[in-house]
Amino acid sequence: MGPITDSGQLPSISYAELRHEDEGVRELAAETFTQALRDYGACRIREHRIPQDIIDKCFEKCWPFFERDPEEKISDHARSGVTRMARFVPYASEKTRGEEHLEEVLQLRDGVYKMGGDWSIEARELIDASEHLHKKCSLIHQTLLECLSSSLGLSRSLTTIHSKEISFFAPSYFAPCYHYNDTLRVPLHIDPTTMLFNFPDSLGGLNIADLRDMTGNLSVEAVQKTATFIPVDCQSGEFVVLGGNLLRKLVGGMKHSVHYIERPVGLSGFHLNYWAVPDMDTRCDFGDKRETVGAYLARVFPSSFGHS
C-alpha cells in the first residue's frame, strides 16, 4: 500500500508491511520508510502490533507517579538505589540553548528492570508497565534498523552496532503550567539518538520541521529561520519515529528530525518515549572531529552519559 500522506502531515508507514511475508511488499515499505527519513527525518508508524492495552496501561500508571509533590518524586528516585540506570528530571531543570523544558521525565535504561530497587509503589507500577512497552519498542527498533540497512544496501546492518542494553524508555509529564502563558513546553531541538519513538496522548503537541527542500546545514538555528513546521496528528494505533543526529552520522543521506512540543496552558498529560543509541565504541565523524559515540554523548548529553 505504501505511505499514507495527508496535506501538511507526515507520511504514515505500515509496520505490518515492513514485516510482510511477500518480499516485494517488504522492500517497497522499507523504501518508503527510508524516503520519509530523507525528507523529514521522521514518519508515523501504523499497524505496529503493540497491543493497545500495553500502551494504555503505561499511560494509566503515569498519573499516580507524576501527580505527587515534586519532593516526593525526587526522594523516590534518590532512595531507589538504581540511579545509575534510572534518572528523574524535575520540572524545568533541563534547558536547551537557555530555554527551559517545561516537563518532568523518568528516564529508564534497559538494565533497570533487572535491578529492582527500593521504589515507591507508584514508581514500581510505572516501571513495570514501562518494561512491557520498552521490550516491544526494542523489537520494532531492530526491525526498522534492518529495513533501513536493506533499503540502503549497507554491507553491514545497523543492528550489529545497536545493543539492546543501550536503549531507554521515558514517560514525560506535562504539568498544567498555569504560571506560564507560553504554550511551548520543549524548545526546538535535535535528539542525540539513532531513533526516538514518541507515543503522544490525545493532546499531542509535537511539531516537526519540513526538511524536504533543505540540504547541508540542518542545525536548529538554520532550520528555525527557514523551515515550516508540521503539527503531528497521530491517529489511533500510530506512533512517531524521529531520526536523531547519530542516525545522520551513521548513514549518509538521512536527516535528523528538528522538532518542538507545544501544549495547552492549564492541561496536563503525557508522552511516552523510547530511544536507542549505537554501541559506545562506534566511531563517527562529527564535523571536523572523529570520535566514539560514547565521547560524543558524554559531551552533548553529560547528565545521562557523562560516566559511560
TrEMBL record:
Instruction: State the PANTHER family in the record.
Output: 2OG-FE(II) OXYGENASE FAMILY, PUTATIVE (AFU_ORTHOLOGUE AFUA_2G00750)-RELATED, OXIDOREDUCTASE, 2OG-FE II OXYGENASE FAMILY PROTEIN
The protein's superkingdom reads Eukaryota
- Put simply, this protein is called Clavaminate synthase-like protein
Q: Where is the Non-haem dioxygenase N-terminal domain?
A: 10-108
SUPFAM superfamilies assigned: Clavaminate synthase-like
Write out the entry's keywords from A to Z.
Iron, Metal-binding, Oxidoreductase
